[in-house]
Amino acid sequence: MQPALDQFLTDRIDEITAEVVGEITTCVPAYTHLRPGEILSLVRDALAVYTGALEASAVLAAFRDLGVGEALAGQDVRHFESALRTGARVLVRRTADAAARLYPPTSEFIAVMETAFTAEHAIVGAAVDAHHRAARPEVTRRLYSLLSKN
User: Fold this and answer.
1) How far apart are CA 31 and CA 64, in angstroms?
2) Is 90 helix (H, G, I), strand (E, B) or coil?
3) Separation CA 20–CA 86 (nearest Å)
4) Reduced to 3 states, what is the DSSP secondary structure of residue 106?
5) What is d(CA 150, CA 146) in angstroms, rounded to the nearest whole number?
6) How far apart are CA 93 and CA 15, in angstroms?
7) What is d(CA 27, CA 120) in angstroms, rounded to the nearest whole number?
8) Measured in Å, how far apart are the chain's first and last C-alpha atoms?
9) How would residue 141 be classed by pLDDT, with cut points 50, 70 and 90?
10) Are 119 and 56 contacting, i.e. CB atoms less than 8 angstroms apart?
């Protein structure tokens, strides 16, 4: 864990969240409605995992819930994943910038970046998997409806 890095990013959480929202709304038209207050806790959780302050397992449930919610709202999984990955790129970039400032390219910097990339993979994977699982009942209902009318 890198407490100084975690604190540095936490102190800038509102700015980072606004940047995440800006990137997502610019790059993913399906998410132009996104507001910083809606994702602040998710950004906070993801950054805590990226810095090693939390284990990924501590936040995966929240991202799975997000995936389920987006599936139930009818959001296309490709748009959802694109939004997640766009936000993740901002968080990795901000984590790298902060780590480089606090730990000029050393083994600590490399460790932070490895943690951030591993966290991004786990978080996005959990959310997308949950979206897929939540969307399956809808597909099954549609298939049953099509087959039962014959």
Assistant:
1) 18
2) helix
3) 8
4) coil
5) 7
6) 13
7) 18
8) 59
9) low
10) yes
